[in-house]
Each structure stands twice: as structure tokens, then as C-alpha cells.
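Appendix C reproduces, verbatim, an entry submitted by the partner laboratory led by Prof. M.T., so that reviewers can inspect both the input and the predicted structure.
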Amino acid sequence: GTPDTLTRAGLEPMHFGPGERLYGMRSEPLGSAARQTAVLICHSWGAEYQRSYRGCYRLSEQLAALGFDTLRFDYSCTGDSAGDEADARLPCWLDDIEAAAQELRELSDCARLCVLGLRLGGLLALEAVARGLRADQLVLWDMPASGRSWIDELLVLHAASYERKNRYRPQRLALPLSADELLGSPWPAELADAIAALRPQLRLPAERLLLIDSADTAIERGGEWQAVQRRVLDEAAHWTRLDKLNTPLGSAPSARAIAGALAELLP
């Protein structure tokens, strides 16, 4: 929308961080008293980012209606942030989360911060906390069992997409499976290795975490994770289905359910 339209809707597009290389979209509280907690949304990557962009926008709308100041942003070398996709690196993304958290704290003047990570974003949020990010609450939405398992799921879809592309091609014209891209996005080996090493570990006391699972993606987590609160959405996410690769994720009821859960938990 136009700048005027965005302003009336409580949306503020911005560039921030070192050299203003990061692009973000802030949603200011609307129609409700501002809360003490601001919410930072950490996206997933690649095809999952594209599928869930609308859902994260809807979620930020619902959070704003409940009084939360919210920021969602693009990691370096992705989306509308600066940098070439082939240069994406995990340590830089973790720095980006820290920069986004600092920006949101300054803009909102909130004393508390909740970090909500979707899919890979959940693993990144946990890793950022391990590196020293201050967060009062972590919300992990459809977080995979590990970085390795997340990559494996995408690789299965990647191979299936090439099978579909080659279905009606003569053998001599078949497209070879590319290891340099993953479902249409550049996939540098250094980034792949770093993500594969990510394993979810409790970085905060269990009462300061919330697991949000879609109806078809619930993962049974043992050990200390059993003490973490968990909500299951009515909506299926279909992360591993090729026929849903271009279907937007995140219905309005799911956005309301997640925002409502946060409203119950956070001041």
C-alpha cells in the first residue's frame, strides 16, 4: 500500500541496523492500551518464508489489535534487506535478530520482549538467546526437531519439484537436480552446514516458552521440553506437501488463536 495507507493501518516500513541494511515492518498497537511486552517475529526462509508471509502479517495485525507493538523483518541477504542471497550466512542472521530486538525495544519503549520464531525462525531464536539475546518469552511456532531434519524435509520437496518439472521432458532434456539452490532460493553450502548443526535446547526456563503446533506438525519432544506449555492449532500447515508449496499459510482463525494465547501469557 501507499505510505498514507500504511500509516492509517498502523504499519511502519523501515530500514534499520548497521548501515540500515535490514528491512522491517512495524505494527503499532491499535484500539487497545499498549502492553508492556513487544513482539519480535522471526520468519522462516525460502519457500517457507513466501508461504507464511501473509500469515505473519495477519498475526501482527491481531497482535496490534490486542495492544502489542510488533516488528517482523527480513534477514540479511533475504527479502527486501540488503545483500545477495548467495552470501547469506547464519552468524549474520543471528546478529540481525539482535539488531531487530534492539530496534523494537527503542521504538516501542517496552520493558519486555517476546520473540516468536516460525519454523527455522524458532531454531534461530533459540540460538540467538544462547548467544546472549535478552528475551522474556520465546514462542516457537512449528519449530522443527532440528536444523538437519528441517533441511531434509526441504530436500525431499526439492527432489519432488524436479520430478514434476521433468515429468513430460524427454530424458535428454531433463533438468539436473541442483545442489546450489533449494526450492528456487540460492543455498550456499556454508549456510546449509551451519543450519544442519542447529539443535533445539531450552535456553530459558520452561515457563517462559510456548510451543505452537499446527494440527499436522506436532512433534513429541522428550526430556525438559515436556514441561513447556503447548497449544495446537486447528489448521494444518502442510509443510511437507509439494501440492501446498504455493498455498499461503496462516488463516485468520490461526492468527487470532496465536495472538490470543500471547495475550493470556504476556502483560
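The first strand starts at residue 11 and ends at 16. Additional entries are available on request from the coordinating office.
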